[in-house]
Amino acid sequence: MSSVTPTTKKSISKDEWEQRLNKVKINKQDLNRLVMNYLVIEGYKDAAEQFSLESGLEPTIDLESIQERMEIRHAIQSGDVDTAIELVNDVNPEILDDNPELFFHLQQQRLIEMIRKGEYPEALEFAAEEMAPRGEEHPEFLQELERTMALLAFQNINDSPVADLLHPNQRQKTASELNAAILISQSREKDAKLPMLLKTLAWSQEKLDERMVYPRIEDFVSADLVVRDSQGNVVDDAIDSSSSAIL
């Protein structure tokens, strides 16, 4: 019978952790650039203008181009895919011509909006005439088309297994994909740095969890440091290193 050897993780108190964090020097302008990068990439024109006034930092791109992307994003998030396509073609018709996957996702969103409105005959006709031929040209799209069409199989589509297609996150996903394509066509970076940094932070904490017990950030909005004991209970005082043995 084999035995399991206890593994003791290194522990660090909240006070010591905060002292170490306070020693890290961060340039305020670097933080400002990070915020401006996010506002510009995500298309928050008004916020970018206001932040520019407050920080003295000039936007890295023409704010008018942000306005165009804002209008396109708003159209998608409002369910008006036709208007979004018209606006994109005004910016650069090659964006959709050169990206069949993006165009399929826009057409998929149009189909979802028809089903959302209860326009079932129109949805069936659109799927047969516009989307099925694209599925034949690009078999990799068929699964997504079949999943979207599954919405029609349920009397109450909100209770269907594919109801997530009706969630605002689906519109947001399509809008973000289109926004990224526009930025690429303008030879600009398509992803904001701030979300990537947060993903890196989350990954780093997961790796650190394997090696030590420490105050970690669980809510990235508040950024409060949370200390938990070996049973997972939140504690306020220093971590007891004797309680960190894991079997």
Automatic annotation (TrEMBL):
Residues 65-122 form the CTLH domain. Signal peptide: none annotated. It comes from the Eukaryota. This is CTLH domain-containing protein. It comes from Lichtheimia ornata.
